[in-house]
Design goal:
The complex is a heterodimer of chains A (111) and B (876). Chain A is α+β, with helices and mostly antiparallel strands and 111 residues long. Chain A has one domain: Arc Repressor Mutant, subunit A (Orthogonal Bundle). Chain A is built from four helices and three strands. Chain A has a three-stranded antiparallel sheet with strand order 1-3-2. In chain A, β2 and β3 form a beta hairpin. With 876 residues, chain B is of the alpha+beta class. Chain B folds into five domains: 63 residues, no CATH class; 193 residues, no CATH class; 169 residues, no CATH class; 164 residues, no CATH class; 202 residues, no CATH class. Chain B contains 26 helices and 22 strands. In chain B, a hairpin with a 5-residue loop joins β3 and β4. The longest helix of chain B has 41 residues. Classes of the chains: A alpha+beta (111), B alpha+beta (876). At the A-B interface, α2, α3 and β3 of A face α1, α2 and α3 of B.
């Protein structure tokens, strides 16, 4: 089972990115994908085949909540909200990610 | 990704909740994705088909996430397996039943081995307990206790019969005499009351008794107020001071009470002679078993020098300290190991059989498996599915097996002496059930792995195109042949063992015991020994009984005897024999000594070979006479006329004259004329008889020969005996034939078990061979059709297939005979009158197994010969 757009995102970081995207406020799935693309200058392309399983995983772990609401164009859309546990998870994953990035940097920059 | 525990738990809870909201979740997801797609289409201005495909995968993945994926796949596998089994009930029944037989037998044997050999004795620090082998006079207990630096030593007698009076009807119980420190040495606490105090084994203070839990319950109603009550044992008053817990069964489960062993140096006979007793000991702190073993030899040497009479220099020379548990289970260890190996063999055979059944099923399911593989099932998934099936089979076998096992346990228990400590407590418990479940899973994997691998190794296109069952790898076919061959080999081993035992039983039943037991009733009457200190009182009692018994209607003859053949009594007497002076190297010979009334010899039809029989005239006042057995005459006076020679008990002055020689009787057991330490047998007239202690035997058996019907006389004889004296216990009335049969009941039971093992093995092997040959025929249908088409006759086809079956059987039999030749010598202790490698038995078993193999191959061969070539050549 191939995931064509997966290679553009480091494995395991998608959860982190989604959590971070939700910090300003609730968003629906399409919105999250759009936001990621915009913010990353079109580098991070998240396909639905990885986005929705990831959202389900976050729901299961209790890091986000989902509720139906009205969208910008007045259609029914499912909005995801960060929970307290999600914020905590975001903080710890961020710290961990930063640590790994610095480590990788060090390795790449070695003489 | 490792998550904290509470997150995982919450996760699991949500999943559980999701299970009930499946439909809702599905709808939500669909709508959400719809929305996503709509927005995307809007943005891109067109509908992307690639992305739609991804949508489906995404939905699948989400759904997987809601559930317990692994668990659900397992459930799916199990459901599927159950359906498969339901569709092939014959296969399922055979597989589950054969596994149940194997697993059930093993569950029962594990239980026994665990209870008797593995589980530590229920005493404090049981690994510090040892038995000092050999038996010793009472004097040894205080001597060893004072001299030993490594052990605390106690004497515990194996137990003898006592009359219990002062608590309901007089009864006969088994009590063990112990030194006062026995319970503290063993580290066993009383359940109620107290244990013996130090010094309670000295004369005058020994009027106390400790009851077993079972005696306390049955005879004293389980009343705690019984502590402190006084009862009489053999007429001596004793206060009940304690009750032991139910699990305490030392020295044997037969012992119902414990009394102090009186240590009285002034009572010469009791202190230095009489019944010798075993010693148990607890290693002192810091002492080692090796140290104790080194100490025993000099201790015995020192003790031997204190004897007031000369003891042979090699007395107890081999004595050493062995762990108590090993001592307790010494006799049954061998038997248990043999049984354990046998049930293990049955399980192996069952596994081989089921594996081979599964292998052939895997072949017939090739097409189904190929279709699954084509639909995208990976190999590991198929292997897992097939393993699930085999483990499920094994677990079903285990459940049924545990049920069978409880039954088997009762049977196995009956094979061991009921006095074995702890035997009564053996029951299949949770640890055993868990072990059995583990065994089932392991066997399930073991017999499932080969078929699963073979089945998953499929050339997809080939199989689907032709649906053929011809293309199995040669390796798996050979493996299957090997499995069946091994099965036949194991079967041969079991059947040979059963055959040897059956032959032993036959030989035993042909043994002439030297007497006729038909129509004879026996009943044990046991007055207190103190009642018989006045010899005339005892003689009068039995005269009355004899006269009464002869008056009972339907009774022809009546007699009394201190023991009847095979009743497990051992009336041994040390004697002086005329012309055979004693020395240190040749101590007094031990004789089996009967005390019988005139008419006993005639009643049992024991042949009189020379001289005269005892008569009513040989009374208390007349000249002392006795009869000897033929082998005794040969042993002491070979080539001489024994009539007129003299024998006397070692502790008396007056010689007794041999007046007659009678035939030998199997007194001790049917299989052995007499134990090694017994040199012969004598019969004294009851009125003149003596025991080791110089007294007249008190407990006697009344024998009555019924003319026709035994029931009426049996009732009357018992009430006659009971009417004599309320303080004299009377045992149950038993036909002598029952006693004789009872003496080999244990042996018969062992044989029955082996026969059932062998029968199960043969049946399984027959099924195995049948399955193998049928499968072989199915595989070669095309080839056979071709052969028939080009002119092979039916006979030729049949003989070709029979040869196939015979080849496997012959390999198996050859291997089995070799294994059996090596293995049956472990059976030697159970055999009688037949060698462990008896050629006749081996030949018969070979023929039997060959016959079974031919029969099992015959049906598929016959079917193959009916092959219609046109039909089968067209199929593929």
């Amino acid at each position: 089972m191939g995931k064509p757009e997966a290679p553009e995102i480091l494995p395991g970081t998608l959860d982190l990115l989604i959590l971070r995207t939700l910090v300003p406020g609730p968003m629906h799935g399409y919105g999250i994908a759009q936001r990621l693309r915009q913010v990353s200058d079109e580098v991070l392309q998240v396909g639905e085949s990885s986005l929705y399983p990831a959202l389900q995983r976050l729901l299961l772990n209790g890091w986000v909540k989902a509720a139906w609401g009205a969208s910008e164009n007045n259609r029914r859309a499912r909005y995801y909200t960060l929970t307290a546990a999600g914020r905590k998870q975001l903080a710890s994953e961020r710290a961990e990610f930063a640590r790994v990035v610095i480590a990788i940097e060090k390795v790449l920059k070695m003489a | 990704m490792s998550l904290p525990v509470h997150t995982r738990l919450l996760c699991a809870c949500r999943r559980l909740a999701f299970r009930w909201r499946r439909a809702e979740l599905d709808r939500d997801l669909a709508e959400e994705m719809d929305f996503h797609r709509a927005l995307k289409a809007q943005a891109a201005g067109e509908l992307s088909h690639i992305q739609m495909g991804n949508m489906t995968i995404a939905a699948e993945e989400c759904r997987d996430m809601w559930g317990f994926l692994r668990l659900e796949r397992l459930m799916q596998d199990i459901r599927y397996a159950a359906r498969m089994f339901w569709r092939t009930p014959g296969f399922t029944a055979i597989a589950v039943l054969s596994l149940a037989v194997g697993i059930g037998g093993n569950a029962a044997m594990f239980t026994l081995v665990n209870t008797l050999l593995v589980r530590p004795l229920p005493y404090r620090q049981p690994d510090r307990l040892v038995r000092i082998t050999g038996i010793f006079p009472r004097a040894a207990a205080p001597f060893f206790q004072q001299q030993s630096r490594t052990m605390d030593i106690a004497a515990v007698s194996p137990g003898s019969e006592f009359n219990l009076t002062g608590a309901g009807a007089a009864s006969r119980i088994v009590a063990s005499a112990t030194s006062a420190n026995a319970f503290s040495v063993l580290g066993a606490a009383v359940a109620m009351g107290r244990s013996f105090d130090p010094g309670e084994d000295s004369p005058g203070r020994d009027g106390v008794v400790i009851l077993s839990n079972s005696l306390w319950r049955t005879k004293f109603g389980g009343d705690p107020a019984m502590i402190g009550r006084v009862i009489a044992l053999n007429g001596m008053h004793r206060q009940i001071v304690g009750v032991m817990p139910p699990a305490f069964s030392y020295p044997s489960a037969q012992v119902q009470a414990w009394v102090p062993m009186r240590l009285d140096p002034s009572n010469f006979l009791e202190y230095w002679g009489g019944e010798f007793v075993p010693l148990v000991a607890r290693l002192r702190a810091g002492a080692t078993a090796a140290g104790a073993q080194r100490e025993i030899r000099p201790l015995i040497d020192d003790f031997r020098k204190t004897f007031p009479y000369p003891m042979a220099r090699d007395w107890n020379r081999d004595s050493t300290a062995v762990p108590l548990q090993r001592d307790l289970t010494g006799d049954i260890r061998g038997k248990l190991v043999i049984l354990l190996c046998s049930v293990g063999l049955v399980l192996l055979i069952a596994c081989a059989n089921v594996a081979s059944l599964l292998l052939s099923r895997a072949t017939t399911r090739r097409k189904e498996i190929a279709v699954r593989a084509a639909l995208g099932a990976v190999r590991s998934r198929i292997v897992r599915q097939l393993l699930t099936e085999s483990v499920l089979l094994a677990l079903a076998g285990a459940v049924l097996g545990i049920l069978l096992g409880t039954g088997a346990l009762t049977i196995f228990k009956s094979l061991l002496p009921s006095s074995t400590p702890g035997l009564a407590q053996a029951a299949i418990d949770w640890p055993i059930a868990a072990a059995v479940a583990g065994l089932a899973i392991v066997t399930g994997l073991a017999f499932g792995i080969a078929p699963a691998l073979s089945a998953s190794q499929i050339d997809l296109t080939q199989t689907i195109r032709t649906g053929s069952q011809r293309s199995t790898g040669a390796f798996w076919t050979r493996l299957r042949g090997g499995l069946i061959g091994a099965e036949v080999a194991l079967t041969v081993v079991l059947v040979v063992s059963a055959g040897l035992l059956i032959k032993s039983l036959y030989t035993l039943s042909e043994v002439r015991p030297g007497f006729q037991a038909q129509q004879i009733l026996t009943v044990r009457v046991s007055p207190n020994p103190s009642f018989c200190t006045q010899r005339p009182a005892c003689i009068a009692l039995y005269d009355r009984l004899l006269a009464g018994a002869r008056g009972v209607s339907g009774v022809g003859e009546a007699a009394i005897a201190n023991t009847v053949p095979l009743d497990a009594e051992q009336p041994d007497l040390a004697v002086d024999v005329e012309g055979h002076p004693k020395s240190v190297e040749h101590p007094a010979p031990m004789l089996w000594s009967g005390a019988v009334s005139a008419g006993f010899i005639g009643m049992l039809r024991i042949p009189l070979l020379a001289g005269r029989d005892l008569s009513e005239a040989d009374g208390a006042k007349s000249a002392a006479v006795l009869l000897i057995s033929a082998s005794t005459a040969k042993r002491f006076w070979p080539g001489e006329n024994p009539i007129g020679k003299h024998i006397k008990a070692a502790n008396e002055q007056q010689w007794r004259t041999v007046v007659g020689v009678v035939g030998d009787v199997r007194q001790y057991s049917l299989s052995k004329a007499r134990p090694d330490w017994i040199d012969g047998a004598i019969y004294m007239p009851y009125a003149q008889a003596v025991r080791e202690d110089g007294q007249i035997p008190a407990a006697m058996t009344l024998l009555a020969k019924a003319r026709a019907n035994m029931d009426g006389p049996a009732r009357e004889i018992r009430s006659l005996a009971q009417d004599q004296d309320p303080d004299v216990p009377v045992g149950p009335v038993q036909p002598l034939e029952e006693l004789v049969a009872g003496s080999i009941a244990n042996f018969r039971a062992t044989i029955r078990v082996f026969i059932s093992f062998a029968a199960a093995a043969i049946l399984l092997a027959a099924i195995g061979i049948y399955g193998l040959i049928s499968y072989w025929v199915t595989q070669r249908t095309y080839e056979i059709g071709l052969r028939v088409a080009i002119g092979a006759t039916r006979r030729r086809i049949v003989s070709m297939i029979l040869a196939q079956g015979l080849r496997v059987a012959l390999y198996g039999i050859a291997a089995g005979v070799i294994v059996a030749l090596a293995a049956t010598r472990f059976l030697a202790s159970l055999l009688y009158g037949v060698g462990a490698t008896d050629p006749l038995t081996f030949a018969a078993v070979t023929a039997l197994v060959l016959g079974v193999a031919v029969t099992a191959s015959l049906f598929p061969a016959w079917r193959a010969s009916r092959v219609d070539p046109i039909k089968f050549l067209r199929v593929d």
